[in-house]
Structures are given as structure tokens and as C-alpha cells.
Amino acid sequence: MNAQALSLKQIKTTQRMKFTYWGHATFSVVVGGTKLLFDPFVTPNPLAKDIDIKTIGADYILISHGHGDHIADAAAIAEHTGATVICAPEVAAWLKKQGVTRIHEMNFGSYTFDFGTVTMVPAAHSSGLPDGSYGGNPGGFVVRSAEKNFYYSGDTSLTMEMQLIPFYAKPDFAVLPIGGNYTMNAEEALRCAEMIHCDKIIGVHYDSFPVISIDREDAKSRFTLANKELLLPGIGESLDI
Q1: How do the domains of the chain map onto residue ranges?
Q2: What is d(CA 3, CA 1) in angstroms, rounded to the nearest whole number?
Q3: Which phi and psi (to 5°) does residue 23 adopt?
Q4: Could you tell me which of 110, 112, 55, 59 has the C-alpha nearest to residue 85?
Q5: What are the pLDDT digits (tens) for 29-81?
Q6: How far is CA 223 from the centre of its chain?
Q7: Other C-beta atoms within 10 Å of 196: how many?
Q8: Which CATH superfamily is domain 17-232 in?
Q9: pTM (two decimals)
Q10: Where in this chain does the record put each Metallo-beta-lactamase domain (predicted)?
Q11: Is the dihedral of CA 115, 121, 125, 129 positive or negative?
């Protein structure tokens, strides 16, 4: 390998993505300068009362399913950022009624955008929209890029479908719910991490409501004992990962 090729390899392996947590299951990832925002639910979340959604940038908004705690601020953020929303057709139809015009409809499958390839994968959950209408299939996303690959499961229980994630891409990190009751708990998220062959997990969907409150230290220790890392950033906190 010549010096130039070695240098390029070193640059790629040291690249970092900026991850910002906005509370509940809402987070941003900057991929090659493109801002991806997932499942925007900030304004109704009392734990995120100090976050002004007008400060949240987005080029794309990815929505895993139609529940209000994943879509509440989607229309408002899409309006003030001009972002394109990536979501199921049924969610798209609801958003269009809210005035959202830039939408890329997806179902389970893959599509290559300017920032990388997105694969929408199944999640074991439900997906009703805020008006009570059908929200289509709930899902998660595998994002592949020149920098890193990652998996966001969306709201889901532990499922054998997760064994297929490394087929699409081995995740450098994964974003998984850990609050239990509606989704996986920390122990189940650890099993998911093993199934997807990923050692760096960012926990979401916990503590927003009493029924999904967790013992953070216990959750972290479970991952540490399995030689894995569970990251629990504060609301508004950014990580270079």
C-alpha cells in the first residue's frame, strides 16, 4: 500500500459522526455534512422543555412510525428547515395534511440518497397516527455512508429479524430503545446488540414517562459486563462517535 492510500485509510478510520440527543427517541446524526433528524418529539416532552425546535437543523427527517411521540414536531421542523421527510406512505399522507410537501415515501427496502443508502427494516410494534388513522408498518433504519454505518431500530421488541442487520451493513453504532413496556428494555437491547454484532449502543426511549423509567447505572453495567458500551447522553448533548 502506497503512502497516499495509507493516509486515506487512516482518515476514514478516524472519521467521526456528530450525534445529538433531543430527548425520548429524537436524535440527529450528521453524515458527511448532511443533518439527519429522527422521530421528532420535543415540544410535548416535559424533559426537553429547554429545547427550542427552531434551533434543530435538518436536511432529512426520518420517521420510524406514526405514534405521536415520534412525529409530534415533524411538520413544524420540516417547515422551518425545508427538510425532506423519509417515512412510510401512510405517515406521508398524514403529513401532507399538515402541509408538508417534501416527502420521500419508503416501505421495507433500500434507496440511495445524496448522503448514503437507507434501508427501512421491520420493527415489532404498532403504528397508529395522532388522528387515529392507520400509520402503516412500523420500522427502523440502517444507514450506510462513506463515513460510518448505523442502525436505528425504532420502537420494537426483540425480534429474530435483527439477525439480518449485518447483512445490510455491520453497524459502527446502533440506537436502541431501552425503556421496556412499549419496547425492548436494557437486557433485551443487549441481546439485540449481540445479534447485530455491534459494541457501541446509544439508548433512547426511556425516562420520558414513569412506565419507562430505568436504572441507568444498572443498564450501563449490563453492557459493560458484556464488553459493550451503552451511551446515555443528556438532552441537548452531542457526541462524536
Answers
A1: 17-232
A2: 7
A3: 100, 155
A4: 59
A5: 999 999 999 999 999 999 999 999 999 999 999 999 999 999 999 999 999 99
A6: 19
A7: 22
A8: Ribonuclease Z/Hydroxyacylglutathione hydrolase-like (3.60.15.10)
A9: 0.93
A10: 23-205
A11: positive
pLDDT tens digits for range 178-205: 999 999 999 999 999 999 999 999 999 9
- Grid look-up 435538518 returns 58
Name 38's bridge partners. Answer: 27, 62
Which H or E run includes 86? strand 84-87
Helices and strands: H and E segment counts in the chain: 7, 14
Q: Which residue has the cell 405521536?
A: 68
Selection from 49, 43, 115 nearest residue 72 by Cα: 43
SS (H, E, C) 133-162: CECCCCEEEEEECCCCEEEECCCCCCCHHH
Backbone angles phi, psi at 74, to 5 degrees: -60, -50
